[in-house]
Amino acid sequence: MAALLLTGGRVVDPANRLDATTDLLISDGKIAAVGAEAAKKAPAAAKKMTVNGMVVCPGLIDLHVHLREPGQTSKETLATGTAAAARGGFTSVVCMPNTSPAIDTAGTVALIRERAAQQGVVNVFVAGAISKGIAGEELAPLGGLKRAGVVAITDDGHCVQNNELMRRACEYAKMFNLPVMDHCQDYSLVTDGVMHEGYWSTVLGLRGWPSAGEEVIVARNILLAELTGAKVHCQHLSAAGSVALLREAKKRGVPISGEACPHHFTLTDAAVAGSDKFWTTDGKILNPQPSTLNLPAWPSYDTNFKMNPPLRSARDREAILEGLADGTIEILCSDHAPHCDYEKEVEFDYAPFGITGLETELALSLMQLVHTKRLSLADVIAKYTVNPARLLNLNQGTLSVGADADVTVFDPDAEWVFEKGATASKSTNSPFYGWKLKGRAVATIVGGKVVWSEKSDLVAA
Ligand SMILES: [Zn+2]
Predict the structure, then answer these.
(1) Backbone phi, then psi, for 241, in 5-degree steps?
(2) Cα of 129 to ligand 1 centre, how many Å?
(3) Nearest to 270 by CA among 289, 284, 290, 287
(4) What separation in Å is there between the alpha carbon of 175 and the centre of ligand 1?
């Protein structure tokens, strides 16, 4: 593999506290040099990529992705899901185990890892199930899953309701040095809620999914993390109360962490009432000069705004942003959840929860966090690189010399419109089509190989 020299970019590597305009040399699939000596060390035959004005950072990691294999390949496959990841600037993803069958045995983990090695264009790490069949009744064989290579356990899509079972899961996970990731949802409070319980659910006549349904489980997880010492990670936080609980627990040193997805800090529940309601109320905050933007329109009850946990109130959205800004929420991810058109094109009550996100999450995070000056660029990059790598004990997420050459190059200021025809995912269930976005991946490099680039001549065959 030829060496590759990236010149003139803004190299941001939070793990090494580096943020400088300099060069980066990749050789034999590893980071060979960073800084002034990179150009000197580059062999004469090295390929050169001029990246002036671009950001060069450790390959982005999304630790919450549904790749739908095995069993749901009409929604997504390892090939299409990882292609979407590469397009979005992601070099590593963690796939969730709520597949058909669930990823709850060493054999299924081996199958995914083997297929991912053949068909995936980015690194695929596997999360195993907490309970057999994700049924919440009996623990999955956690030791076997660990030996098969899972990086975490979770029943995502579902939530273990039995606190004693969750306690045992935490105890075993700690023994195997695995983080426990949890989709926080109390079934007795949420029942068959389909959107945030509040003003808009009442106006629209839809059953409510109250914030307390998430907060109760976040509190449970804090107590169990404290009791067992296991690392517990709360997935896709949506409610203000969850952020407050996490903030307080972290101050006490509890091994608890949390993640947020761009839809929860970009949109609110008013979006379910249609674009006119959203843009005239909450949308104004998002775009200070709406008259200059070509705003998309959507009808009320659009199922592309149905996700779990649901879009919440403007106050909750603000609390998630504050949690990200003060470090309470350390990790950003998409919860990329592809579904077929025919599944989403039904009444709101019957549609499955979830939206795709791999291709829009970088732009939405930059828009809501960096372009609004809530967070520095390095802080946002840390939430997509070193922070998830640390939680999952991965060697990824840094540009240290000798590390795997997983590198993302992006233009933080590029303006573009997300178009259906340009998506690499097998599914198109995103609410962000037609949105004018700011910030875009330019090249995605995995193990020294350019797996996706705007300029196709750079992409390795
Ligand atoms: Zn989930």
Answers:
(1) -65, -35
(2) 13
(3) 284
(4) 25
Burial of 192 (0-12, 13-18, 19+ CB in 10 A): exposed
Residue corresponding to tokens 């936080």: 237
Give 219-233 pLDDT, tens digit per residue: 999 999 999 999 999
* Side chain identity at residue 293, one-letter code: L
Closest CA to 430 of 380, 358, 324: 358
Digit-coded pLDDT (tens) for 394-447: 999 999 999 999 999 999 999 999 999 989 999 999 999 999 999 999 999 999
Give yes or no for a contact between 441 and 409, defined as CB atoms under 8 angstroms apart. yes
Q: How many residues does the chain have?
A: 461
Distance of CA 426 to the CA centre of its chain: 18
Residue 33 to residue 39: CA distance in whole angstroms: 9
Rounded to whole angstroms, how far apart are CA atoms 367 and 271? 18
**Helix (H) or strand (E) run with residue 359 in it:** none
User: What is the pTM assigned to this prediction?
Assistant: 0.97
Which of 156, 316, 335, 406 is labelled catalytic?
335
The whole-angstrom separation of Cα 353 and Cα 263 is 13
How does DSSP assign 89-101, residue by residue? TEEEEEE-S-SSS
CA pair distance 427, 430, nearest whole angstrom? 9
CA distance 237 to 241: 10
**Cα 230 from Cα 167, distance rounded (Å):** 9
Q: How many CB atoms lie within 10 A of CB 341?
A: 9
The closest alpha carbon to 150, from 172, 167, 135, belongs to 172
Q: Mark whether 192 is an active-site residue.
A: no
What separation in Å is there between the alpha carbon of 264 and the centre of ligand 1?
Answer: 13
User: Tens digits of per-residue pLDDT, 14-36?
Assistant: 999 999 999 999 999 999 999 99
Please give the Cα distance from 263 to 38 (Å, whole number): 39
Contact 146, 175 (CB under 8 A): no
